[in-house]
Amino acid sequence: MNSENDFRQDGRNVLLTGGSSGIGYELRKLxxxxxxxxxxxxxxEKSLSDRxxxxxxxxxxxxxxxxxxxxxxx
Length: 74
Hints:
This protein is α/β, with parallel strands linked by helices. The protein has one domain (13-67). The chain is 36% helix and 22% strand. It contains two helices and three strands, in the order βαβαβ. Strands 1-2-3 form a three-stranded parallel β-sheet, covered by helices on one side. The longest helix has 15 residues, at 45-59. The protein is globular and about 30 Å long.
């Protein structure tokens, strides 16, 4: 797996919202520890970027980040 487009085709991907801290952060540790690739959505782009590198190194999983405010209907 060399790029964000190389996510698993076997369904071992998980989408987590609020993934930069709190419960979302703890859940992603569990999923990454079980070998799931991660798609993370949160408002803070800097925090997402920092966590992305942390998880790629610590768990050897693919991580895609999306900086977005999901509470905004637009």
